[in-house]
Each structure stands twice: as C-alpha cells, then as structure tokens.
Amino acid sequence: MLAAGRMVGFLDSLMSQEIAKLMLGLPKGSLEEATLQLFARAGFPVVKSSRSYRPSFDDPALDGRFIRAQEVARYVEHGFFDCGLTGQDWVQENSADVVQVCELIYSRASAQKSRWVLCVPEASPVKTAKDLAGKRVATELVETTRRWFKKQGVECEVEFSWGATEVKVPELADAIVDITETGSSIKANNLRIVDTLLETTTVLIANKTAWANPTKRAKIEQIVLMLQGALAAQHMVGLKFNLPRQALDKVSAALPALRNPTISPLSNPDWVAVETIIDARQAREFIPTLKASGAEGIVEYPINKLVY
Q1: How many CA atoms lie within 13 A of 48 on its CB side?
Q2: What does the alpha-carbon distance between residue 88 and residue 201 come to, in Å, rounded to a whole number?
C-alpha cells in the first residue's frame, strides 16, 4: 500500500509538472528562421522538423507550437498559449486583450521596425488618402486599414488580400496597404508610398491569466531577459589588450566603452590590461588607434548576450 501510495504521488507530481509547462506560440513563416536563431543565441535552442508544427525544447519547462504570426495573438488571448511572439500589428488587428511584455526588434531582413504603408502605382493620380474615396484597397490588415480610413474621414472598400498584395494593382484594386522594412519591394513593383498607417515590430505577449501566475510569469521574464540580452549583443564585441600605462589616459579618453573599461595591473608595473565592450563597427576604427598607441595582444571576441 505504501509503494502504491508513493507511485500515485509520483504520478501526481509528473502531472503537475506537465500542467506547469509554459506553452509558447512561435511565428511560422517569414519570422520563423530569425526567431529560431534568436532563441538559440539566447540559450533556448529549438529543434523543429520540416513536417512538424511542434518544436522541441531542451528546457523541460517549455512547450509550444509554430503558428502563423497573424493568429498568435488570438490564441494567447484565449489561453491556448501562455505567451507568444507576434507583431504589434497583429495584436492591434485582432484587438487582442493580452499583456504586451516587451518589444523585440528583429526581423528576417533588418533590425528595424517595419511599416504598413498605403501604396499606389507610380502613374496613379492618387496623392493622398482622400483621393481614394469610393475606391478599392486591398490588404491583409483589413480591420486596421478600415479603422485608419475611417479616422481619415474616407469611405472606401477595403478587401482582404492573401499575400502578394502588390500584384493586385492596378487591375484588381486602386491601392494596397502592405508591409515593408526597407521599401525595396515597393520600388521593385513600381509602386509609390502615399502614407504610413503604422509602424510595427515583434512583441512578446502573454495571456493575462498566465501573467498573473507567479511561476509562469517568472519563466516568461527569464525568457525575456535572455532574448533581450541576445539582441543587445548582436552588434557588440569584446575587446581586450595590453597597454603601456603612460598611454592609458589618452586611450581611455578615446575608448568608445559601454561603461568605464576594466583596467587590471600586470606583473610589469609599466603595463596594464584593458578590457571593454564596444560596437563592432567601431572596432575597425579603434584597433588601429590602439596599435598606434603601443597596445599589444589585441583580441576582439564575439558576445553572445549582453544584459544591462
């Protein structure tokens, strides 16, 4: 009986651990590869087979699914996911009642915010949104676009477009609302930007009930800390070198350090060891300056995470 009781207790423990798992919604599609790379740098490697929507985590406290970014906010709001990564635009589009924990500015193409823009063909006579009164506008971001035109006092027909929106004008629509990071795809399709509806970036959102759970909230905050650390480090490098003590003041004044550099004495009292973190783009300019100042043993090394 005692053994049986212990077995029941063991099974109950396993079940409670399973229930306590954090369910994570990851964006499938254009953000998928960038998200996998970010999680790997943050210390949460994710393994996914080409035919599966269920990722494998090496952290037993995590579980999740890959799903289109457009749907993540709804599933987080309804509690299928405890938290997830999606765009601010899709949170707004779905009017999702969720907790926005933090912004994570990363994407497939650049480390900058994306924009939803109103576009027309280069030859179009349309100059402002008001010129589209009574016209047809195609977009994937339907509800947000309708609200925006209403705010502009413009009545037009906004219809849903599933991908490749830029091919709809001018034959199927008078204008489109599409997302862009650099504007290159807009120009490549001979389109002209009339106005910007909103800027958007990736956000980590949480279900309100999960966020109120101390255990789940602590896990979400751990993930956020590591993801932000990985993003902060992506353009930074560590730099260390030995320097004649007499050159220290001059080099310190020119050093583009994150904070004051770490300076340590060496066995030779006329020399010091210096270590700092700088922007990778500054290193190419600063290393020759160091060499000219008499520095030796200059080492540049990558940074995986930088937590402020």
Answers
A1: 24
A2: 6
Which of 116, 126, 180, 169 lies closest to 146 in space, CA to CA? Answer: 116
Question: Residue 128 is part of a domain; what is its CATH number?
Answer: 3.40.190.10
Residue whose C-alpha is closest to residue 278's, from 258, 263, 259, 264: 258
The pTM for the full model equals 0.82
Q: Are residues 142 and 154 in the same domain?
A: yes
As a whole number of angstroms, the distance between CA 285 and CA 291 comes to 11
d(CA 123, CA 227): 44
Tell me, yes or no, whether 101 and 131 share the same domain: no
Q: 3-class SS at 252?
A: helix
Burial class (CB in 10 A: 0-12, 13-18, 19+), 159: middle
H/E stretch holding 203 reads strand 202-206
**Which three-class secondary structure state does DSSP give residue 16?**
helix
Scan for tokens 């080409």, then name that residue: 50
Residue 4 in any domain: the answer is no
Per-residue pLDDT of 239-265, as tens digits, reads 999 999 999 988 888 877 656 789 999
And the tokens for 120? 């027309």
Return the half-sphere exposure (C-beta side, CA atoms, 13 A cut-off) of residue 86.
Answer: 31
Pairing of strands 62-68, 22-28: parallel
